[in-house]
């Protein structure tokens, strides 16, 4: 029903406005008695065999919602009713910011893709932390970044502020240095500044009563040499793992009119490259750390390819928008078929 009826209507309108409209609709419906139960009955695959333990956490299933969808942690409880095993909120910054000027979100329907240049628009980490206190048992990842006006030389302080604010509210952290929409942010992926950033966060983490898993979210545009650096950095800093991958700046093979828009590309054009990065990291590291696979998952087969390539968990974003919530169920059922 989603692809035949709901999606064509939603896709008539501006994607950012539709995003907020959909959030409001889900929130309203979830308050009506019985609707949350209906969503779970339709989409949640409740089977103990799907439980997955990764970096010390138990996930009810390996399919998560990627960061960027619920940036401000306003709808994570309701979204969990669509069958997700975990929800990653953010990217959050120390101080709320409007992000880049609109229009900044574009559908590329012939390519089953999206280009965004949102620019870490969010209300600030402290407000999100307050909302996370209302968590009803959802496993939450906290994706954190730096404010646009913070120079890279002071970026560590921004990440530390976010880390401290979310420490009691999230189950793991995702360090975002790979968004193409904050000026110079990707320079933090260079070996020296990235090692320093992650080591400072890890030292802060280990000083807490109970350390939380820290993962690094990387770009799909890294070279093999840079990916080898990532493996070395994970080993040196002893963080928990990697999220592969963020959006790409590549426009290779696109057909849509919007292909010239600046920003990060997600969706089907990213399927192959994100899987290649997962396989490279897994094989070259000898499976030394867990990987969350994300990028271009539009069917159960795409998810299985990423798991077979070395991912321990997967996340959806653009595929969830194009295919609807039935995709979560289809992936979990496919995983069960393979057991």
Automatic annotation (TrEMBL):
Substrate binds at residues 71, 116-120, 176, 181, 246-247. InterPro entries: Aldolase_TIM, DHO_dehydrogenase, Dihydroorotate_DH_1_2, Dihydroorotate_DH_2, Dihydroorotate_DH_cat. Binds 1 FMN per subunit. It comes from Flavobacterium psychrotolerans. Its EC number is 1.3.5.2. Pathway: Pyrimidine metabolism; UMP biosynthesis via de novo pathway; orotate from (S)-dihydroorotate (quinone route): step 1/1. Residues 50-339 form the Dihydroorotate dehydrogenase catalytic domain. It comes from the Bacteria. Keywords: Cell membrane, Flavoprotein, FMN, Membrane, Oxidoreductase, Pyrimidine biosynthesis. This is Dihydroorotate dehydrogenase (quinone). It is a peripheral membrane protein. CDD domains: DHOD_2_like. The active site is at 179 (nucleophile). It is an enzyme of class 1 (oxidoreductase).
């Amino acid at each position: 029903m989603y692809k035949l009826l709901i999606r064509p209507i939603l896709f008539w309108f501006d994607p950012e406005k539709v995003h907020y409209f959909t959030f409001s609709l889900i929130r309203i419906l979830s308050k009506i008695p019985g609707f949350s139960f209906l969503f779970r009955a339709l989409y949640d695959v409740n089977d103990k065999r799907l439980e997955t333990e990764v970096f010390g956490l138990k996930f009810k299933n390996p399919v998560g919602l990627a960061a960027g969808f619920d940036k401000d942690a306003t709808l994570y409880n309701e979204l969990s009713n669509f069958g997700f095993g975990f929800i990653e909120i953010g990217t959050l910054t120390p101080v709320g910011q409007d992000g880049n000027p609109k229009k900044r979100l574009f559908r590329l329907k012939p390519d089953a893709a999206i280009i965004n240049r949102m620019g870490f628009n969010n209300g600030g980490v402290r407000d999100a932390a307050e909302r996370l206190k209302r968590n009803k048992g959802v496993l939450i990842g906290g994706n954190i970044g730096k404010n646009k006006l913070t120079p890279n030389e002071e970026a560590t302080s921004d990440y530390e502020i976010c880390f401290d604010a979310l420490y009691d509210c999230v189950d793991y952290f995702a360090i975002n240095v790979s968004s193409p929409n904050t000026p110079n942010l990707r320079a933090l992926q260079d070996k020296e500044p990235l090692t320093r950033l992650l080591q400072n966060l890890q030292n802060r983490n280990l000083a807490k009563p109970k350390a939380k898993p820290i993962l690094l979210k990387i770009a799909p545009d890294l070279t093999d040499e840079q990916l080898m650096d990532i493996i070395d950095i994970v080993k040196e800093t002893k963080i928990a793992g990697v999220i592969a991958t963020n959006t790409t700046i590549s426009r290779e093979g696109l057909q849509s009119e919007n292909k010239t828009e600046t920003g990060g590309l997600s969706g089907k054009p990213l399927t192959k490259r994100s899987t290649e990065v997962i396989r490279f990291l897994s094989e070259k590291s000898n499976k030394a750390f867990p990987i969350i696979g994300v990028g271009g998952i539009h069917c159960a087969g795409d998810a299985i390819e990423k798991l077979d390539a070395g991912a321990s968990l997967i996340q959806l974003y653009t595929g969830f928008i194009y295919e609807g919530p039935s995709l979560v169920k289809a992936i979990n059922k496919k995983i069960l078929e393979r057991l």
